[in-house]
Design a protein that fits this description.
Helix content is 16%, strand content 45%. With 127 residues, the chain is of the alpha+beta class. Strands 1, 2, 3, 4, 5, 6 and 7 form a seven-stranded mixed beta sheet that branches. Strand 5 and strand 6 form a beta hairpin.
Length: 127
């Protein structure tokens, strides 16, 4: 099981291009696996910090994202608000690139399976 974080600011979504497998090279939300003894919200905030350099305040669970394929991933995605850290997103840990993507451009990126559709279903994307 893993966690992810949906952070929207000024009409843009915080995204990372994955630098490692699974889904190396694809765009996704910052996120990853839980560490022992860590709450879901703590894990989501840690993953955003490790992958983008940004500190976030994590609030509500937005939804569950399930990927079936060679392996089975269940990711709980939370809503986050950028509250500090680096001046802008800076790739780190598992991310090759981290940046703010205008909401209207998210669907044009080569994203992890069903990410754009899921974000539309959750009303993050409106197009």
């Amino acid at each position: 099981m893993g966690v992810g974080c949906v952070v929207v600011r000024d009409g843009a979504l915080l995204m990372v291009r994955r630098g490692k497998e699974p889904a190396k090279g694809l765009w996704s939300l910052p996120g990853g696996r839980l560490e022992h003894g860590e709450s879901l919200a703590e894990a989501a905030a840690r993953e955003v910090l490790e992958e983008t350099g940004l500190k976030v305040k994590v609030s509500d669970l937005l939804g569950v994202y399930e990927v079936l394929g060679d392996t089975h991933y269940v990711v709980l995605d939370y809503i986050g608000e950028a509250v500090g850290g680096a001046a802008g997103p800076t790739a780190g840990e598992d991310a090759a690139v981290a940046r703010w993507v205008p909401l209207e451009e998210v669907s044009t990126l080569d994203c992890t399976p069903r990410l754009s559709e899921t974000l539309r279903a959750w009303k993050v994307l409106t197009e």
